Amino acid sequence: MRVLFINSRVDAEKNPGGDTIQAQKTQAALEELGVEVVMRSPYNLDDLPGCDLAHIFNIQEPEPAWAAMQRLERQGMPVVLSSIYWDMLAHWFEMAVTGNGRWSQISRLLGKEKARPLYLGWQRVKSPANARWRAQRRLLAHARRVLPNSQSEGELLQSTFALGRHFQAKVDDIPNAIDTSLYEPLPAPSQKFWQQYGLRDFVLQVGTVYPAKNQLAVIEALYDLPVPLVFIGKVLEPYADYAARCRARAAERGNVLFLDHVPHDELPGIYALAAVHVLPSWRETPGLVSLEAAAAGCRIVTTSIGSTRDYFGEDAWYCYPSDWPSIRQGVESALTAPAPTRLRQRILAQYNWRATAVATLASYQKALKTDGRHSPAVTSYNEAHTSV
């Protein structure tokens, strides 16, 4: 079998993220199963070798993906889709209530807890008027199979995009994964990091520095907690001001280290040196760094927004991104808890790239047996909306 891989995010090569890792690692694991994979951008689909089907990753930037899907469909090539999706409505609400606009006034009048569901409902009602929403919906409706990273993500896709009761028939939950070879046996604490920075038993966050990852909230929530903070991740260029605010506040707090980059194969030892990994993002599906940290024996504090509970269950501490007390409570509880050995073993057994590749290949085989022209999920918006 030969499969065409397409990452639809236009800056995926310049700014690698979780979608890049998912595509690359899935490719390597599929090739070990005997599948040939051809990787292309959505703008480089000329002179393709003969492929059995195409696999598109990421619907966050839907227009390039939709253009590629249309072209491939005209060639008769089946297309499966890894959605890698979670909405940012909760973050939008927080931004909307910080100014002097309508939602700020409504929030002051009703309180944030009552204003939030009104805002979310209003955004969802007006979504079909948005071109991006319509493009994302077309992608999901036309794909032979849809491969979310969790059951929660699949259910969110169905409700958010009004895809109707038949949508789940073509959904295959494909777990995200980590390179378990880096975590077996249990990594030893990094002597290099300890000798260079003299830090251990710190609170760690690995991830790109920008508002969605919420580093500033970590600094604020733990401002007077006597524990070192370590942030590892590059700054996204459009968010240089946010990174500067983080560094300025960190300088006022003291005992905070920022590192732009660490080679990936050095991270296991740094996770093992940390006491807690905290990721209070505005969405995670589920956050590969949280999986890695847990596999290294680190305690996990993570956001409650996204598919985190599908992966971590009762073996992590959850917080809400704008609720600083919940971040602090999660970290303080984690600091005094035993190491998550049960979570570590479950991650190694279930969330490895071979398991992901086996499940992905099974989905491909279903797609090749399906005639997309008769897929019950390919319906008009009005049809699907009335059936939800």
The CATH class assignment of the largest domain is Alpha Beta
For this structure, the quaternary state is single chain
Distance between the termini: 36 Å
Topology pattern, helix = H, strand = E: EHEEHEHHHHEHHEHEHEHEHEHEHHHH
Report the portion of residues in β strands.
5-15%
Structural write-up:
By secondary structure, the protein is an alpha/beta fold. The chain has 2 domains: 2-177 and 353-387, Glycogen Phosphorylase B (Rossmann fold, 3-Layer(aba) Sandwich), CATH 3.40.50; 180-349, Glycogen Phosphorylase B (Rossmann fold), CATH 3.40.50. The chain contains 17 helices and 11 strands. The strands form 2 sheets. A 6-stranded parallel beta sheet has the order 8-7-6-9-10-11, sandwiched between helices. Helix 13 (308-312) links the parallel strand 10 and strand 11 (317-319). Residues 374-388 have low confidence and may be disordered.
